[in-house]
Design a protein that fits this description.
The protein is built from 14 helices and 27 strands. By secondary structure, the protein is of the alpha/beta class. It binds glyceraldehyde-3-phosphate.
């Protein structure tokens, strides 16, 4: 069993009292972490980050970059171990866990590249660029201060580092809170930051329940910025509590895939399967509802059923495609949505099988907009299929969701595709591909309950810095 200390105020700290992190595959304890009194822990971490900011913000970018590259090297050296922790605490397949580690290391490189680009090119406004006489304004970006990063369980390494890398390279200090399941990797990451030699207080990890730790973190006056990924319930609560603190929130989604009458159905089916069932649908960008034109419904559904039946179901360490959900409670929620839809007339076209929190992938047809399954985010392996006749009504239903993260449109007609994309209320619309955050250099945002602010490599840097102008006068 794993037992990790956490990095707070420059030291790896442990305690006799422990927090247990469950292994969703075995329903046994995967590891433990130190349990501290929440108020004292948060206070120590924020005080340390606040103090460290004074020196860290004036270190040379080269120093900060070298340290980030050092920790990235440690991540790469430990990639097998880190991936095994993901397998253990979030039941992500070993293959996808390794991909997450490597993708994140590339993300760090790209963040450094973008930082150099942004910092190397401050905005200069002078007589040559504008009609202002006798003034030269140089506008560069400076850090904000202490950044609080709150990461979710589904990408506990990637979405943590997607916050930490831009924050740190830009000269901010950080206090981060991993999701409860995701805390083992979060703690291990903090140890590697320590090993890389980050100065005291620059990186601090706090663990504990969201309720106890989260509120204390987001309400504290020493916090300069909050970057959160998780549910809309928690995200909106943070927005309420963090009065005036700049926020970037990535929350839920109910990403639709619209399959039009002229779509390449084989392509659409492959993308829907990948988009709907990767990591068991536990992705904010997962395809969570399919709108199919009635003329191609039967053919699409036939293809989808064939493909669902080929998905392997089993253990993350065996690289099964479908693995146990994060908890039995999560599986109960999915089950409830599907059962209710079936009671109201929907039909599950695939085998409905469940062993505790391991759920076989479900394709649920004849879903209507009267059913919760058409609106709620299951965060599980279920794709509801809604048939449409009139594209205008279909788009109305797409936009009636409280979410607006991403969407997919499948058609061979690019003019129509763009027209529909322009009507959809979402951060990004993907033509002939499933929704997805990557490539990571793309801006990533959501509308309505899906998010606030923009992420993605460049935009994260922008959100964690502010413009500083120096104006020279003749
Ligand atoms: O779960 C939320 C993630 O931002 C989705 O990322 O599209 O790379 O799976 P992804």
């Amino acid at each position: 069993m794993l037992n990790f200390s956490i990095l707070v105020d420059g030291a790896l700290v442990d305690s006799d009292e422990k927090i247990s992190v469950m292994n969703p595959t075995t329903n046994t304890v995967a590891g433990t972490l130190p349990l501290f009194e929440p108020k004292a822990l948060v206070d120590t971490a924020l005080a340390a980050a606040n103090e460290a900011y004074i020196d860290w913000k004036v270190t040379s970018p080269k120093e900060r970059i070298d340290l980030l590259l050092k920790v990235k090297e440690l991540f790469l050296q430990h990639q097998e171990e880190l991936a095994d922790i993901l397998v253990l605490e979030i039941a992500k397949s070993k293959k996808d866990s390794l991909t997450e580690i490597v993708r994140t290391c590339e993300y760090i490189d790209a963040t450094i590249e973008s930082y150099n680009e942004i910092m190397a090119n401050p905005l200069i406004i002078d007589e040559n660029t504008h009609h202002i006489k006798g003034k030269t304004g140089i506008f560069s970006r400076e850090p904000l201060g202490v950044v609080v990063a709150i990461a979710p369980f589904n990408y506990p390494f990637n979405l943590l580092m997607a916050k930490l890398a831009p924050a740190l390279v830009a000269g901010n200090t950080v206090v981060y809170k991993p999701a409860s399941q995701g805390s083992l990797i979060g703690a291990r990451v903090s140890q590697l930051f320590h090993e890389a030699g980050f100065p005291k207080g620059v990186v601090n990890c706090v663990v504990g329940s969201g309720r106890s730790i989260g509120d204390l973190l987001v309400e504290d006056g020493r916090v300069a910025m909050i970057s959160f990924t998780g549910s809309d319930t928690v995200g909106l609560r943070i927005a309420e509590k963090a009065k005036g603190i700049p926020l970037v929130l990535e929350m839920g989604g109910k990403d639709p895939a619209i399959v039009m009458e002229d779509a390449n159905l084989e392509l659409a089916a492959n993308e829907i399967i990948k988009g709907g069932f990767s990591y068991n649908g536990q992705r904010c960008t997962a395809i969570k509802r399919v709108f199919v034109h009635k003329s191609v419904h039967d053919e699409l559904v036939k293809l989808l059923v064939e493909k669902v039946q080929k998905l392997s179901v089993g253990l993350p360490q065996d690289n099964a495609f479908i693995t146990p959900l994060i908890s039995n409670k999560a599986a109960d929620f999915v089950q409830g949505l599907v059962d209710d839809a079936i009671a109201e007339g929907a039909v599950c076209l695939t085998e409905m099988k469940r062993e505790r929190n391991l759920m076989w992938p479900m394709l649920v047809d004849q879903v209507t907009v009267d059913m919760d399954l058409a609106w709620e985010e299951p965060f599980g392996p279920v794709i509801p299929v809604i048939t449409y006749d009139d594209l205008t009504i279909c788009v109305e239903n797409v936009n009636a969701s409280k979410y607006g993260l991403q969407a997919s449109v499948f058609t061979e007609d690019m003019v129509k595709a763009e027209e529909v994309a322009n009507l959809i209320e979402a951060g990004t619309v993907n033509i002939n591909r499933s929704s997805s955050r990557g490539p990571d250099i793309f801006p990533f945002s959501g509308v309505k309950n899906s998010g606030l602010g923009v992420q993605g490599i460049k935009d994260a840097l922008i959100s964690m810095t502010r413009v500083k102008g120096i104006v020279f006068n003749k």
